Amino acid sequence: MTNSTIMYTGMLHSHKLFVILFLLIYLIKTLLLLLNKNESLVNFTKKTRILEMIVSTLFLVTGIFLASNSGTNGTWLWVKIAAVAISIPIAVIAFKGQKKSLALVSLFLIIYAYGISETKSPTFKKEKVEMLASGDRSAVGQDVYAKMCQSCHGINGKAGMSGAKDLSISNLSNDEKIAIIKHGKNAMIPYEKSLNEEQIAAVADYIETLKIK
Hints:
By secondary structure, the chain is mostly helical. The chain has seven helices and no strands. The chain has helices at 3-34, 38-68, 75-97, 100-119, 137-153, 174-183, 197-208.
C-alpha cells in the first residue's frame, strides 16, 4: 500500500468519525430544542462549543482534502457540498432563534449529505452499467472499467485517486479482485448491485491486462 493510499484511507476514516460526531452534536441539540429543554440546550451548547468548533473545522478540512484528491467528483459531490453549506447557516439561525422547523431542516440536510457521500448519488441509487450488445468479454471489461473504475484508477491503473490501489503492480488474485469489486474497500463502494456477475468477471480480467509484465 502506497503512502498516498494510506493517507487517503486515514483521512477517509477520520472524516467519517468527525461527520458522526458532528451529526451527534446536532442531533442532541435538535432534540433538546424540540422537547423545549431550552435551559439544557443553552448549557449543552456552552459545554460543547469548543468541541463543536474543533469537530466542525476537522470535518471541513478532511472533507476538502478528500474532495481535492478524489477521482469520483461528479454531480453528487457538488450536491453534498451545497447541502452542508446550506445546513450550517440554517442551524445557526434555528438554535439562536429557537426555531424548531429550521433545526429539523438543517439536521435533514446534514443527514442527506452523509447519505450522498456513502452512495455517491444524490438519490442514493447506484448507477447500473448496461451490457454491450456485442457481449464480447474483453470489450465488456474495458467498457465497465472506463465507466466505473477509470476516474479513480486511471486509464493505465496508476492514477491513485481517492486512495485507489495501483493496478499495474497489484498482486491480487482473480478471486480477490472479484471480491473487492463486489464488496468494495476503503473509499471504493461495492458494485455487486450495480454490476452483474459477467460484468464483474470481465472487469477483473481487464484489470489483469493493466499489470506491468
